[in-house]
Design a protein that fits this description.
By secondary structure, the chain is mainly alpha-helical. It has seven helices and two strands. It starts with 12 loop residues before the first helix and ends with a helix.
Length: about 200
């Protein structure tokens, strides 16, 4: 296989110095053609005695070059393969996570279906305002939102299930913007104690 270049070595200087300019020119041209295309030269002058030295070195250099190209190609293919494998693993991992999410959603739907309950979604200020206006109560919607947002939408120690019921509780107990948040907290605690007492005495 022909190589891509021809290296000239310093230890060839004595052999080159023994040649005339014409002989050196023919030798150089032959070396270039052989290195590039593998053409065997036909030499008749003194350069033909120097040619075997140069030819054997060109063959060694070409073999070394070809070996380097093969190794780089193999390394490139391996790197490409690893990269593709990593991408494939990422895609698989993403798909598995998405499947897990879908399974969780299906489980939640099944639980909601079997219990008849829906997952709690905190109301917006507009929701509370509209509900309070509908009932004509004195509950401050912003105060209601702020209070339950700060405690994670919990009634006592339990997660809230029905925010409208909480609004009605505030309404029945006269809790409005004129009363403190502490009274709302105490109210929640009282209802929590009553619920626990009822559960224990059923």
């Amino acid at each position: 296989m022909a190589g891509q270049c021809w290296f000239v070595y310093y230890d060839w200087i004595p052999a080159f110095e023994a040649l005339s300019p014409a002989e050196l020119g023919r030798l150089t041209m032959c070396a270039l053609k052989y290195s590039a295309h593998g053409e065997e030269p036909e030499l008749s002058g003194s350069e033909r005695y120097t040619w075997p030295l140069i030819k054997s070195q060109i063959d060694r250099d070409n073999a070394k070059y070809d070996d380097t190209i093969r190794k780089r190609s193999a390394a490139g293919k391996m790197s490409h393969s690893k990269s593709n494998q990593m991408i494939s693993n990422d895609i698989t991992s993403y798909q598995e996570k998405e499947k897990e999410k879908e399974k969780e959603k299906e489980k939640e739907k099944e639980i909601e279906k079997s219990t008849g309950s829906k997952r709690f979604a905190p109301p917006t200020l507009a929701d509370v305002t509209a509900y309070c206006a509908e009932r004509g109560n004195s509950v401050d919607p912003q105060h209601f939102i702020d209070y339950y947002s700060s405690n994670g939408w919990r009634v006592g120690k339990n997660p809230m299930k029905d925010w409208k019921a909480a609004v009605r509780t505030w309404e029945r107990n006269g809790y409005s913007s004129s009363r403190s948040a502490g009274s709302a907290s105490a109210l929640d605690e009282s209802y929590e104690m009553m619920r626990r007492w009822a559960d224990e005495n059923q």
